[in-house]
Write a structure and sequence with these properties.
Strand order of the largest sheet: 2-1-3-4-5
Oligomer: single chain
Number of helices: 5
Largest sheet: 5 strands, mixed
Helix content: 40-55%
Shape: globular
Distance between the termini: 26 Å
Length: 160
């Protein structure tokens, strides 16, 4: 988590300065980004909450999902992550929301992508999404890499 702290600090400072809020739905990041944000002084000013959605059943239970966000949207794709980020943003009534799903390893995803692959969606005033591919099956390293990518995505969006 140490590599996430400087990025989380920058995100926290920008969100506090702007008076904006964030919520998250993490999967293969396992709550690392939430932990890094909550560790920042004054987190209650910008951090609304998060979930760690590790199974489809958990997503259905927490978000009352009847199916994919849209009929033609497949899991573990940027459009899916973006749609889920919007669900999270609406549910938490946040300015920004991040949704992430992936395969941290050592095996791949049941949806097809191999280990070291994640998709991250950002909902808010300037939505964005990215795919992260590390090419590695190192679970802990991938979790950190996905977390860093998520924090960089929001940081880059906030500084545009």
């Amino acid at each position: 988590m140490e590599s996430l702290m400087p990025l989380a600090y920058e995100v926290a400072e920008l969100l506090k300065k702007r008076g904006e809020t964030i919520a998250l739905s993490e999967s293969s990041m396992g709550g690392l980004v939430s932990a890094a944000l909550v560790a920042q002084p004054g987190a209650s000013a910008f951090y609304l909450g998060s979930t760690v959605i590790y199974t489809r059943g958990a997503a259905k239970a927490l978000y009352d999902l009847k199916g994919p966000p849209a009929p033609d949207v497949k899991p573990l794709t940027e459009p899916y992550a973006a749609a889920m980020a919007e669900v999270v943003r609406e549910k938490f009534r946040a300015t920004w929301a991040i949704s992430e799903m992936g395969a941290s390893g050592p095996s791949g995803s049941p949806y097809g992508p191999g280990p070291g692959t994640a998709v991250i969606g950002l909902a808010g005033p300037h939505p964005a999404s990215i795919t992260v591919s590390t090419g590695s099956a190192d679970r802990a390293a991938n979790m950190r890499a996905f977390g860093e990518a998520a924090l960089r995505l929001i940081l880059e969006t906030l500084t545009e």
